[in-house]
Each structure stands twice: as structure tokens, then as C-alpha cells.
Amino acid sequence: QVQLVESGGGLVQTGGSLRLSCAASGHTSSIYDIGWFRQAPGKEREFVAGFRWSGGIANYADSVKGRFTISRDNAKTTVYLQMMSLKPEDTAVYYCAARTLIYGSFDYWGQGTQVTVSS
Q1: Do residues 112 and 95 make contact, with C-beta atoms less than 8 angstroms apart?
Q2: Cys-Cys crosslink for 52: which of 14, 30, 56, 73, Cβ 3.0 to 4.6 Å?
Q3: Which residues contact 103 (CB under 8 A, 6 or more apart)?
Q4: pLDDT tier at 104 (50, 70, 90 boundaries)?
Q5: Percent of the chain scoring above 70 in pLDDT
Q6: Distance between CA atoms of 96 and 50, rounded to whole angstroms?
């Protein structure tokens, strides 16, 4: 089992910045990929950013490239999403998720944290 707990969401003005955190615990050695997703009201959940837990190049959605950065602390317990130049369309609930199988779906999810960008 893997537990994921997000924090760091809030209200920010257009052009502002936020850093989300995802604390991972439990059987983290079983994680294959980890990433951030988001879901805006009335829209489907979408991938934002992610990387291979063992290390490697991060992947980003086109809509956030150059503005968002995913990273992890050296202890491999917390994953961050640094968000800059925020836009109203970034408003959503942001989820941290982990996948334990190479060809499986993301099977562990956090509870989500709300990010609201005012215009």
C-alpha cells in the first residue's frame, strides 16, 4: 500500500505562483511512476506532470510546459509541483498519483488539493 497526501493549494492571482507537495509513505519502493493530475469543474481529469520513480526525465502536459516543474526531495518521500505564471484555466483540484505496474493505471491517489487562480 502507498499513501499520498497533498498540500499547498490555495487562492492566487493570475501570474502568481504556488508549490504543491505530495507526501508519499508506505511501500514507496513499489512505485513505478508518480505524477500530478488535475480536474477542473465539468471537465475530465487530466495529466499535468510526472516522472519515473527510479529517476529520469519528467513529462509535462503541453498546457503547463515552461511554467510547472515537478521534483522530488532526496529522501524520496515528497514530490513537489512548482507552479508559476498561473492562469485562471489552471484552476482545478490537483491530485498526486502513483502507479506500481509498468503497464497499469495509476492505482494510488491522494485526496486532492484545490488551486484557484483569480483573474
Answers
A1: yes
A2: 56
A3: none
A4: confident
A5: 100
A6: 9
